[in-house]
Write a sequence for this structure.
């Protein structure tokens, strides 16, 4: 079974994001980069499926030349094919991104056969557009479900569960299909040493798709107004316990 | 011309996120003098209708179709897009819930138009032009942008807009919209729903006790669990904790976990990375327990204790128990 995971290079999760003086970009000087968290899980899920059922894991990203690092991270945990849709660093909107992925998938599938499953992250940690998977599914005329936290495959049917108001809702889709997953669907493995060695030598198939301007035009980036609270320090160490107990009483949370 | 808002309702009542989306959509409509129209899948109850009128909805469409007895993302989107073009609507708005984002993504794909997720504000400045601001980097930054597309497809960020009833409640008309849906529109739908294990739901808990890297190990959570039990609280954790495998991901608070809005959040041994703060910024009262006086969480807290949670929490648990027995 051939599985494709589509991923994005994003600033380290939890990093302090600052804006450049012209308010147009984020300052990447001091930032490390990583695979967007939901997509890290998409890679892991693809690897697990192929370990169980055979086939190939392909991983694709659209991004600057440096995004090759994230493809190699994927190779280190088991991705066999790496595809880079290289950009010149400009930001791509969701319609253009989905379009470039669809083109690449069509090209691949006519050469190597169909992907039974295409995985995405539910939303990228940086842009948070929530739509690439759905747009790709429409263009390829395949069924799609988003936000999945449990996935199993039986013959040609995929059973996908996701959280909904304190429960799990179940969807059943016919393969081939498109699924976006959320962190928590699995705990991604750490790469092994042989995995890392393999990743260094892995071949990256690279193409340069044409950029299209988005119909959403950025004017400026700015920091949100954050309500800074001045924490009242109740004390240090054990001496603070009576004050803490008093506070909980005052807040009415002790029965 | 109108602004159309997709409203989610449950057990006969409009969900909180949809009340916020209605407030957002009404403000957008006011910027160009357009009426607010609501679309709901399924029958509209009397309390729902009253809430819609209070939030300024002048027309409510119940979307009815045999195939929509359970949630079908593409079916909902097809119905919504059809209704938007028959009204016609200049904008379609939904809450930034899992369903709202999913349905609007399908609406974007069906129409080939932009879909802008997690908006904080929007106003119309021309026939096809909307100025808006939206969250980026999980709410760490805000982007001001202009979108030119008709209708404008938007979802509303989780805690961007307060649920504000209209100054003047509308007199509301109820209509039925019967979409024509193909088998393919309904091929992906919810086929079953199961209740998760019992216990207090993290998203809805009034009190949350949080543990971070400072807890030190999976076993270290004993006192945190005990405190949560005494307070009737849910336990929440940071991403560092789930990545280490100490606790399961369904307890993770943050951008890629659960967003919480309790009355009290006790953040123990959590430094307060932006990914975590994105998930707890709606907490009404924050108490931080941390060894580091300069940790970001301290500047977001109302009260703080400087010290090691592994010493302080067991002592607090003991003090609460002794209080109960005296």
């Amino acid at each position: 079974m051939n599985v494709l995971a589509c991923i994005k290079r994003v600033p380290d999760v939890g990093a302090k994001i600052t804006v450049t003086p012209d308010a147009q970009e984020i300052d990447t000087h001091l930032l490390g980069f990583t695979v967007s968290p939901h997509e890290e899980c998409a890679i892991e899920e693809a690897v697990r499926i192929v370990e169980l059922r055979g086939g190939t894991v392909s991983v694709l990203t659209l991004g600057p030349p440096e995004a090759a690092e994230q493809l190699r991270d994927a190779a280190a945990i088991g991705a066999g094919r790496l595809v880079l849709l290289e950009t010149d660093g400009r930001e791509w909107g969701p319609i253009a991104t989905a379009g470039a992925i669809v083109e690449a998938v069509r090209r691949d599938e006519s050469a190597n056969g169909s992907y039974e499953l295409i995985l995405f992250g539910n939303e990228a940690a940086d842009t948070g557009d929530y739509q690439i998977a759905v747009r790709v599914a429409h263009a390829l005329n395949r069924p799609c479900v988003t936000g999945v936290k449990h996935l199993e495959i039986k013959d040609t049917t995929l059973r996908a569960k996701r959280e909904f108001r304190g429960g799990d809702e179940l969807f059943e889709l016919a393969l081939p299909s498109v699924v976006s997953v959320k962190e928590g669907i699995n705990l991604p493995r750490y790469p092994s040493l042989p995995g890392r060695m393999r990743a260094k030598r892995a071949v990256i198939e690279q193409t340069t798709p044409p950029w299209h301007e988005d119909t959403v035009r950025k004017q400026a980036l700015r920091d949100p107004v954050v309500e800074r609270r001045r924490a009242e320090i109740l004390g240090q160490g054990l001496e603070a316990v009576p004050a803490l107990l008093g506070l909980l009483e005052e807040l009415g949370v002790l029965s | 011309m109108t602004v159309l808002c997709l409203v989610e309702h449950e057990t006969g009542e409009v969900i909180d996120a949809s009340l916020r989306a209605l407030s957002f959509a009404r403000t957008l409509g006011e910027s160009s003098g357009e009426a607010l129209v609501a679309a709901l899948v399924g029958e509209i109850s009397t309390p729902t209708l009253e809430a819609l009128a209070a939030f300024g909805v002048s027309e409510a469409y119940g979307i009815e179709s045999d195939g929509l007895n359970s949630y079908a993302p593409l079916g909902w989107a097809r119905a919504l897009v059809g209704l938007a073009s028959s009204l016609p609507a200049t904008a379609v708005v939904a809450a930034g819930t899992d369903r709202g984002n999913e349905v609007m993504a399908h609406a974007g794909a069906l129409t080939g138009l932009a879909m802008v997720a997690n908006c904080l504000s929007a106003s119309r400045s021309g026939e096809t032009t909307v100025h808006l601001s939206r969250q980026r980097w999980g709410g760490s930054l805000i982007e001001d942008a202009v979108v030119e597309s008709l209708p404008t497809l938007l979802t509303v960020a989780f805690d961007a807009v307060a649920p504000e009833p209209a100054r003047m409640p509308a007199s509301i008309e109820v209509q039925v919209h019967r979409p024509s849906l193909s088998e393919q529109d309904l091929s992906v739908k919810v086929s079953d729903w199961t209740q998760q294990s019992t216990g207090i739901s993290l998203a809805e808990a009034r009190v949350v006790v949080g543990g971070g890297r400072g807890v030190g190990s999976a076993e270290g959570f004993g006192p945190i669990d005990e405190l949560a039990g005494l307070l009737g609280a849910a336990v929440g954790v940071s991403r560092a904790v789930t990545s280490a495998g100490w606790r399961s991901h369904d307890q993770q608070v943050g951008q890629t976990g659960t967003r919480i809005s309790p009355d009290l959040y006790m953040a123990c041994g959590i430094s307060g990375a932006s990914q975590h703060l994105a998930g707890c910024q709606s907490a009404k009262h924050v108490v931080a327990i941390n060894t580091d006086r300069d940790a970001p969480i301290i500047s977001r807290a109302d009260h703080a204790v400087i010290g090691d949670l592994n010493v302080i929490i067991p002592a607090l648990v003991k003090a609460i128990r002794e209080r109960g027995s005296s």
